[in-house]
Structures are given as structure tokens and as C-alpha cells.
Amino acid sequence: MRQENSKRIGQISKLTRYPVKSMAGVEMEHSDLGWHGLVGDRRFGVRQMKNASGLAWLTANRMPELLMYRPCDFDTDSGERLPTRVQSPAGDVFEIEGDKLRAEIRDQIGCDVEVMAMKDGIFDDSPISVIATQTVSTLCNEAGVAVDSRRFRANIVLNCDEVAPFLEDDWVGRVLMFGVGNSAPAVQITKRDVRCKMIGLNPDTAQHDPSVVKSAVKLNENNAGVYGDVIRTGTISIGDPVFVLDSNAG
């Protein structure tokens, strides 16, 4: 893949990793992009021990308040800077794999849970998600809510040079390169991001507003953003230019 065969589409405006699946994210100025996504992304998850739905991982779809739990006290000796504790919405701080956090979550959902660490991450689909600020603002404005990219829980938010929303759909099957040079980190875009009710959850209050999902259905067949697989690793930073090129470009 050579950058001279590409087209600039914008720049990185926000980078976020989510150390614990469905909990609050951690914004970063820069991040290493590894084979399993942003380093330290979704490396912990809350597993439901006996859940009638058959879904093992607890998400904010079942327990919206998870969004307000904040990973904290990061281990600086670990290469991935993983959290050692979690702060609850009430301000209590629990050991991330301790009994007190498990008990608090169990009491809210009515079944036993355990917090598990997974070295390759816990992803619903591909390990990288990307969305454009234009898509975020269009959907939020249509829904009549404050413009807030946190609703969409993307790893990489781009500010595109074009003002139209849903440009991401055109990137499916193509490659995004982040930064300048033929060795720049790159992601193969695999599919559109079909949305669930989680985008209707206010990340600060966990209150649900169905108008956000309805806006996605109305304007773009319930899609907002895209998923991708890492095909070249490296460091990415806010402000990096982003280029798109066809997968078979030399």
C-alpha cells in the first residue's frame, strides 16, 4: 500500500479506549495501534454466570449504569496501562477483580458475575471502530440531543474534509491509513456499524432516549460508523491526517 495512491479524507479528532467492556472510556492524545486494536481496549469484561439470555458478557443494554463506572488507577508498569480499580457512579472505588465490585453489579442485575481479563480483547465485531464527527452531529441534531460522540463509543473519531454525514459507508472494503508515509498504521474497513439501543443512552446519566436510534434508522438504515481490522501497526495521534485507498492499491 502506497500513500501516493490514496486520497486524504480528514484527520483524527478523538481517540478513546474502553478498558472494561461497556464502562466509561479513556480519551488519549495518542495510542499504539496493535493487532487487537488500540492497546488496552476492552481487555476486561463482566461475565454473567447464569444468564437466561445466553449472552455471556454484560453490557449497558442490560445494565445502562455500567456506562457511568469509570476505570481508574492504571498500572503504569503494564505495557497496556490497564486499570486496577473502578469508580462507581456513587464515587466508591473497587478493586477491578474484587468481591465488592462483583457484589454491587450482582445486586443490580440479579445474577452472579465475574470480571475477566482477556489479553486479546472482548469485541462484538472487529477490534477497531471509526466514526466521523459529521455523522455524530447529524444524528444527534436529528434526535434533538446534545452532540456527543461518546454515545457511539468509537475508538477513532475523524473530522472529515467533506461536510456530508455517513461518508464512512464508502470506506467499506477499503483501507484507512493514519499519518504520513507508506509505513503508516492502517486499518482494513470491513463493515458498517449496525447500531443498538446503546447509542440512546446518555453517557453521563444512563438515561435512554430512543430518538437517537430512530434517527439512525431513518437516516442511514440504522448504521453509524464502521468496523475495521488492523493490517499495519504503529502509533496514531490526534491531528494525524487520514487517507483512504483501495485494498488492491499498490
TrEMBL record:
Superkingdom of source: Bacteria
InterPro entries membership: MoCF_Sase_C (IPR005302), MOCOS_middle (IPR005303), Pyrv_Knase-like_insert_dom_sf (IPR011037)
Gene3D superfamilies to which the protein is assigned, alphabetical: PK beta-barrel domain-like
Coiled coil: none
PROSITE patterns: MOSC
One matching Pfam family: MOSC_N
Transmembrane residue ranges: none
Molecular function as annotated in GO: catalytic activity; molybdenum ion binding; pyridoxal phosphate binding
MOSC domain boundaries: 80-245
Identification of the protein by name: MOSC domain protein
Species per Swiss-Prot/TrEMBL record: Novipirellula galeiformis
